[in-house]
Amino acid sequence: MTPIRFYNTLTNQLEDFAPIDPPVVRMYNCGPTVYDFAHIGNFRAFVFADLLRRFLEFTGHEVRQVMNITDVGHMTEDQLADGGGQDKMELAAQRLKAAKKSGVADVENPDDPFAVARYFEKAFIDDARALRLKIADDEAPRRPRATEHVKQMIAMIEKLVAADHAYVAGDGAVYYDVSSFPQYGKLSGNTLDKLAHGAGGRVSETDTAGKRNPHDFLLWKPDAKHLMKWDSPWGWGYPGWHIECSAMSMSALGVETLDIHTGGEDNIFPHHECEIAQSCGATGKAFARYWMHTRFLMVEGEKMSKSKGNFYTVRDLLKRGVDPAALRLELMRTHYRSNMNFTMKGLEDAHRMVERWRAAAAGVDAQSVAAGDSDVERDFVAALSDDLNISGALGAINKWLNDSPDDLSPLVRMNSVLGVLEAAELETETSGDDAAIDAKVQQMADARAAKDWAASDAIRDELTAAGIEVQISKQGITWRRKMTLD
RNA sequence: GGCCGCGUAGCCAAGUGGCCUAAGGCGACGGAUUGCAAAUCCGUUAUUCGUGGGUUCAAAUCCCACCGCGGCCUCCA
Q1: Can you give the distance from the CA of residue A131 to the C1' of nucleotide B76 in angstroms?
Q2: How large is the angle between the packed helices A243-253 and A273-283, nearest 10 degrees?
Q3: Which of A88, A103, A294, A479 is most buried, with most CB under 10 Å away?
């Protein structure tokens, strides 16, 4: 079997993958912030993590996946990381209040930041389940909440202070001393000598006054007025942004060195760089062996942004009748280290592919699909073993399908990685009216039996206009809703 | 200014030194089928890999320059 190789951001090269404790693989994925509904860009990273997990499971690994829920109310804008700006949870509450007024949201008490966080966390899990992310059905401890791990964060900060990796500044805030960690910059290439402080234009000088070095980052911010606050040796306040992942990953996985850590490319610096500094500083051990980052998603060739009107959440698309399997396939079929271009046409392409596979797999008795081996599965695994080359894997499947194989059970087995054959179970705005459509189709069948083509065509046109596609065969007429996109 | 990554047909997208006169999907076109369509099936669809140099017996694949795109340089997947 071909060895599994992954591109490791830490070394900027492909490396053979070998977990510390085979067949167990301990993987941590930077998860969602729950101030709002997650968008398709967020989900590209989550779908990637799911694909990685499913592939490793397919190749005999026992994956322990942990995805955090960031529910601490961090700050907006930039000063935020160091303490200014407006609390994101507060903004979320304002949005929810507005939504509640208009009857859209059903959060019980928008004034309770925890209720707001739980509301969006549930929305995230619902979306994740629709896209068949396994993490959505895992036990809750696999989705640790930052607000429930403040104790572990404080313990780690104390360790860092004791080890002289952190210090308490004049204003009482606790900062990590980056000069105490010579490897700082290894992940991103942004070593201290190369960092241009403030070049990103997002630093507030007034909030960095207490630091020894402008690149030192916040571990604890005392702030008794903060919306969500906890008691600590440094007073009531809240933890810095980076510390939660270090504390929760070790806590949830029970080890100090993870096999795999994933996230979006924007997390490479500073977030993951800082996690490494904190974790290694606290334990003296490597934090994660393989770092994998997904590139950003574009929409119709442009950056996705609310102002451009090309901003999509998963739930928006599903409500509009998009097949979740098509969305899942579209989000995962571009290699994770390339910018993917999300397009409506691409979504339709993906849908066609899913439907074709579903038709092919329709006759397979899922019960009879035991473990198996076949050329196509070997090609499939070989492609994915090469840094998760999903396009190559999909190509292997389609090529094999084009030869009209007798035994289609490999398709069902490979679906344990793809997760797209299952039909949508979601209610959409276009659901309902099935009985009325059945009746129309019956009228059409009667007209056809009487060779009344004009009547038959009229009904067909009517159904087509309503987004219903009819399929006529010798066995009769079947129908399905077309995936609709405006 | 620094650090990453990317640029392959109408669109999406593999391939990263010779099996490439470049997978696979969508679309388009032709045919079978059909009352006509749809669905389905069969076939066709890049001598060329952002541009210009260079290395090599051999380059989409390596090197250099340039152009374009994306990310980061204390919010972000």
Answers
A1: 22
A2: 60
A3: A294
